[in-house]
Amino acid sequence: MNRLAGEPSAYLRQHAQNPVNWQPFDAAAFAESAARDAPIFLSVGYAACHWCHVMAGESFEDPAVAAYLNEHFVSIKVDREERPDVDDAYMAATQALSGEGGWPMSVFLTPGGKAFYAGTYFPPVPGSGRPSFTQVLAAVHEAWTERRDQVETTAESLAETLAQPLWKVHSGTVDQTPTRAASVGKAPAARDPGVPRAAEVPAAVEPAVAPVPEWSTATEMAVAAMARAEDLVHGGFGAAPKFPPTPGLEFLVRHAASAAASDAPADRHAAHSGSVARDLAGRALGAMVHSAVIDQLGGGFARYSVTADWSEPHYEKMLYDNAGLLQALVHWIKLAGGDPLGRHPDGGNPLSGRPDVGPPGHTHLGPAQPHGGVLPLDAADARHAALATISWLMDEMRLPGGAFASSLDADTVLDGVHYEGASYKWSMAELLAAASATMAGEQADVGGPGASRQQETLEPDALEPEAQELADEIAVAMGVARGEGAESSGSHPLHPGRPLSARERSQWERIKPAMLSMRAARVMPARDDKVVASWNGMLMAALAEAAMVLEVPACLAAAVELGEYLQRVHWDGQLFRVSHDGRARGIKGLLEDYAACANGYLTLYAATGEQRWFEFAGQLVQALERDFIADGVVFNHGAHDGSGGPLQGSRFADPFDNATASGVALMAGAFTSWAAYTGSHRHREMAESLLAGAPELARRAPRSAGGLLAVVEALAAGPLETAVVGTDGPEREELLRVAWHSGSPGMAIAVWDGAGAAPVPLMEGRSAQAAPLAYVCRSMVCARPVAKPGELRELLR
């Protein structure tokens, strides 16, 4: 047993029994490296990572490999989700040295923590142009012992380069410095293919602060660029592997909503851009929701698809993906016209003005015959997917105390062997068994206590033709292939690849209980129970908004309990990034933790009207301004924290998204919302300054600027501020329903009974009247109050 046995991280504990003498990333490990004059082997991964498991089984559990590592190296394991600062710093080094990035990440360091060789997964034997792990170890050892000067020169040069920011964000201006790629001669690869990282932006660009009028040009340019990158056949963007474009989806939906609410119908460019954005988002969401990348049976989105058509997931399920995609689905539903079921008074498409085309009960939000045959997501199917995601979150990810776990593993472990996705695949034989169980259950229900003896003794063989027919229908609907021998050996993910027909939906709902019962008996993937502040903050916002738009009170209760957990466990005057078993551990929260939680608590205030959440959000906003900005520069770590050890290049914040919106975008969103509730000109100006580089980002890397561009849409829209004042009751609830169903980007909503002191500045001077009133404002300047839902709806258009 090594030093990882006592670590709280599930990922580190997975390696506690390895023969490798693993150590956590701490001072003791670096001290041992210096004392032994041995290089460090740094391995970075996370609990749900499939290829991390593969490399562990092939190399880290091999006694011979472990003996070599133990003799010649000091081996350190890092959970990238607990230490994203370490991950960011050494991922930059890995990309610069190897031109690739991903996990597991394998980096070789000097005792001072400076990288000199790096890669990702190394196989046990050479192949496909990759050396074996043992070849790498031998080569590094030889270089360290025989060519130390060359190694140290490389390490020093790279460290100097990494110490410079890729894109330094100021709270007053934004500067782009020469990229690291230009300095070291290699352009790093993206972590998610198709999503450019900062280092891919050409050097020597110094964007000026963008005046507000440039925002519309920037957003339209970004939409056009994303349209050029769309996969016209399968939906989404780029080629395989295909990732959910979550921050980009939020931008596209907001852009479409802004165009739909525009007061300038003559602006043909804006209208066309909004229509394109709507169609891009609709097709991407439709492709994902009707594919194997979402668990068709139990809910929850997988990390990505290894195929371009979304048919073969990489099965790990991450909290952050599902929080972001839940929010995107809810906002897509709001785009349907303000009704959670997508209904429209004329019975047609609320966005196109044309009658419905398609299966009964489906209201498509985009063209009837989109190019490539990818249908935009139907509003009812969006609601179904959102509710399925919520159900999965509640059933499989919620922890005692109300927080949510980080992930489910990609692999199912059967008899000590890892099988990727085994828990989620189905064979024809298994579908037939589920169909037979369904038929038998229905026959028993028909029989009942008063059934005739003939019904009670019906032979199972009599049900076989119907069961086979049902299984065949489900196999076709869910893309479970039937080839020779497939009945006994072929297992496949559930991949409809298109919207289900009314009959297919009925048959699917019919067989689901039996399939769920069968799956409950399977071994399921392991769960990483650590609580990450930023991801839970994102989910808090998504649950609170889903509760109000979909009208699911249990979601709001869950959001409140989550808010209470984060405040109670993660906050003691500063915010901790992670907790385990109800106890905060590890480092202080990073920019994304503070900003995501600030946004989450502001949304929770909007949904509940409880002043405590607004006040706590204020503490987080204050900490963002105090701790993450110094001399106008925005930092990823607290600006006044210590150096955090031998890390280079991870301190400066950058505005580029990855799987989630960047910390800079989250900060800009928090400042924007805070300004809307308080009238703070300073926070609005800081938000605008953080967005100064948005036009240049939109031009250079639009698919990695969705987070910032989404905030641009909010600021361009106002954002609107809607204050509803009056005693609780049906009339106030109707006004709130209209407000929550509005698609206006980033709208701030406040509710108050009018008694006592105003809970937020937006409410000041708005006392209760005979009937509840709604005030719609921009920058605290309000239209006349209205009492009728229809009047409020008109003001929010």
Percent helix, as a range, is: 40-55%
- Report the β-strand fraction as a percent range: 5-15%
**Count of DSSP-assigned helices:** 28
Mean pLDDT: 86
Q: Give start-end ranges of low-pLDDT stretches.
A: 173-211, 338-371, 450-458
DSSP strand count: 22
Structural class: alpha+beta
**Main sheet record:** 4 strands, mixed
Please give the order of strands in the largest beta sheet.
Answer: 2-1-3-4
Oligomer: single chain
Q: What's the N-to-C terminus distance?
A: 63 Å
Q: Write down the Rg.
A: 27 Å
Shape descriptor reads: globular
Structural description of this entry:
- The chain is α+β, with helices and mostly antiparallel strands.
- Helices cover 47% and strands 10% of the residues.
- A hairpin with a 2-residue loop joins strand 15 (576-580) and strand 16 (583-588).
- The protein is globular, with a radius of gyration of 27 Å.
- The termini are far apart.
Short description:
The chain is 47% helix and 10% strand. It is built from 28 helices and 22 strands.
Attribute tags:
797 residues, alpha+beta, 4-stranded mixed beta sheet
Question: Any chance you could write out the topology, listing elements then pairs?
Answer:
Elements: H1 10-14, H2 27-36, E1 40-45, H3 50-60, H4 63-72, E2 74-79, H5 84-98, E3 105-109, E4 115-119, H6 133-146, H7 148-162, E5 168-169, E6 174-175, H8 180-184, H9 213-229, H10 246-260, H11 268-289, E7 304-305, E8 313-314, E9 317-318, H12 319-335, H13 379-397, E10 407-408, E11 411-414, E12 417-420, H14 428-447, H15 453-456, H16 464-477, H17 486-489, H18 502-520, E13 527-528, E14 531-532, H19 533-550, H20 553-570, E15 576-580, E16 583-588, H21 591-608, H22 611-627, E17 629-630, E18 633-634, H23 663-678, H24 681-690, H25 694-700, H26 706-717, E19 721-725, H27 730-741, E20 748-752, E21 773-778, E22 781-782, H28 789-795
Parallel strand pairs: 1-2, 19-20
Antiparallel strand pairs: 1-3, 3-4, 5-6, 7-8, 9-10, 10-13, 11-12, 14-15, 15-16, 17-18, 19-21, 21-22
Helix pairs in contact: 9-11, 9-25, 9-26, 10-11, 10-12, 10-26, 12-13, 12-19, 14-16, 14-18, 16-18, 19-20, 19-21, 20-21, 21-22, 21-23, 23-24, 23-26, 27-28
